[in-house]
Amino acid sequence: MVYTNPGDPMERRQSTITTIGISFALAITMGFGALPASAVEDSVPAAVPPVSPTPQSLTRTGDDAVVTGRVIVAAGEETDPAARDRLVRELKAHGADRVDVVTPGNVPRAAAGLLTVRLGPATRPDIAAALGDTAVPDHAEGYALRVARAGRGARIALGGTDAAGQFYAVQTLRQLFVRTGNDGWRVAGAQASDHPSMPLRGTIEGFYGQPWTHAERLDQMDFYGDVKANTYIYAPKDDPYHRGKWRDPYPADKLAELGELVDRATANHVRFTFAVSPGESICYSDPADRQALKDKLQALYDLGTRAFSIPLDDIDYTRWNCEADRAAYGEPGAGAAGEAQVDLLNDVQRDFVATHEGTWPLQMVPTEYYNHSESAYKRALRETLDPSVEVMWTGVGVVPTQITNEEAEQAARVFGRKVFVWDNYPVNDFGNTSGRLLLAPYDKREAGLSDHLSGIVANPMNQPHASKVAVFGTADFTWNDRAYDARENWRNAMSYLAGGDRAATEALLVFGDLQHMAPTFGDTPWQPQAPELARRVAEFWKTWDEADRDGAVGSLRAYAAAVERAPATIRAGEVEEGFTVDAAPWLDATELWGEAMVTMLDALAARQAGDEETSDRLLAESDELQQRARAVRVDPPRNSWGEVQPKVGDGVLDAFLVQAELRLRLWDSAGGGENLAPKGTASASSVEQDLDRLAPRHVNDGKTETRWASGYSDDEWVQIELATPAKVAAVTLAWENACAAEYTVQTSQDGESWKTVSTQRPETCGNDVVRVADDEAVRYVRVQGVERRTTWGYSIHEMGVYGTPAS
């Protein structure tokens, strides 16, 4: 869709969402592990720890259960092996020196003073009794959990409605461990009745560019198990055997890797969904092509795969790949393409999927995946596609700014079934994401979508570990969309990545704020850049202009120092190593930008104190740090962007530095420069297609989400007539992707005679600061294009003119 793994990873990654200190020495080692009375008395009820995904119901029931040195686990033949093994690992990681697994009827008498955990089907008599009045959901993948004190010991009941429910009960229990004051562990006294709101939850590896490595995919399966995601769709666009060479069997080594991946997914209750995308070359009516497709699916079925997908996105349905299809379905077009695709998909569903034991319904991605309008193509799918086939949909637009209940319901009407959302966030394989990590929380998907969708899978970034921030949110939303809180989830996601380390969590939140921009295919991002920093910068200038300059500097400097420290804290803490590798260029650049910001604030403070010499020195140091930050490159790039500059708080952090520098350079002019552009009048040589939304007035409206765009020639310009003549110190430009390879800045007193004051050849599209060394008062400032970087015209979000009125 357009736009060294040391050791056993299952053992390597025991738990990263628990509280701080898992690696500390285990404290309870007394005899059989019976706990002294004083320690029991230390168990004081407190708030239930946060659990993600948010359970449908989670309440405090009473005192916490102390983890004794010896723990009894009662598990029978119907206990899910993956759930049992994970339970044992978690108990050993949280204070149990010895875990004895016994059958339900063989719990030893000595267990009376020990922690006893019962795991299995919720209908098992001993579990049902231990659950008491805790409600057991009548829902697939559901579970009930109860933690209770019992005499000198404690008991925990984990009952699932199915095997997956048992596994998810353990995943919830994993997050209920809390430390005691004496370095022991206890389990919060709580009960849960829980089940997912959506049946399909997870990711689709469906991006363009470098696919994930085998080790990265294995790690992702463990991550999905942790967050109760049950779906992974293998569909990397740049895997040749997925798309271009779909008829060819996978080489033996690749097939072995896929087999291992299927096994790891199954161990985490994740459906490994194998996708084949034949639309670029298939002859729909050819029995040989159909057999080749089924043979490809059969090879994965033999490895244990039980879920399959046929994506037919990003293909041209105005032509056939063979003349036989013209004879079978008529002239190419939307309706004929729909008929041909339905013919193929029904054959695969009925002749392959339905005839193979244990398979899930076939999934497909339609060619019209990006809207919910009626069409001949959708009519063919609605009226003739087998009703069991899952149809994927991206929302309105390939990268939607929102997904609402009304939109989902309309999509269900035109496709004839609940749709399965392929959500293109946080994918960063399209032009507007160049140089970006997308670390904003999963957001702007409406509560109640579980009534209208069969599920959501996120399309992640080429960077797998960095993608976990958004995927963590997707998993939470799809589990319980009505209780989802994007900001709370964001913090929980960062804590997960940080292994519960508080300092690293805070550093990740600061870093994530600088990577908060979420672009779309259009001009308007659906999440803003650096909202927390932007709020603090706005407060800084308000306080500064109200004459409390020392207070302004002190407040913002503390946050700037946090920006500077964040990369080192992230690298030194418990944060997943894969994340620090994914984010390395951005971390490098952030440290430099943060240091430049701290230095700039010190320069403002020195000038305010009357020390002009120190201020000038610090200003020069800040400029040098900014140059170094701009020189950082994403190298080697995983994406198709090339070796680009990593974007860090762009439009906010760099804009603050520009404004602060202008204040310093124009200190003697009423204490600093003013952006004169908003009070001026903009005009231009042309407007792209005469569209009012691209008119010149948008270049100085103070809104970064609007823009001016020119006609498609090199000799185009935009200018601002200032309200009064002024001495101009600098011109700032926030370019859209259609920027200039070369341009000049010109000034004029009368709008007729022009003087070139600067010629610029920017390396990339971004934010330009053009300094003007001219004491002459002018009335007009123009940006004159010399050479375009693209086949489009020139496009600028905002143009600033900084200086002081001549009067």
Query: What is the overall pLDDT average?
Result: 92
Shape: globular
Rounded to the nearest angstrom, the distance between the terminal CA atoms is 57 Å
Provide the gyration radius in Å: 30 Å
Query: Mind summarizing the main beta sheet?
Result: 9 strands, antiparallel
Low-pLDDT segments, ≥5 res: 2-44
Structural class: alpha/beta
Tally of helical runs: 21
Helix content: 25-40%
Strand content: 15-25%
As an assembly, this protein is single chain
What is the count of β-strands? 27
Structure description:
With 807 residues, this protein is α/β, with parallel strands linked by helices. It is 34% helix and 20% strand. Strands 19, 20, 21, 22, 23, 24, 25, 26 and 27 form a 9-stranded antiparallel β-sheet that branches. It has an 8-stranded parallel β-barrel with strand order 11-12-13-14-15-16-17-18. Strand 3, helix 3 (81-93) and strand 4 (98-102) form a beta-alpha-beta unit. It is globular, with a radius of gyration of 30 Å. The model is unreliable at 2-44 (pLDDT under 50).
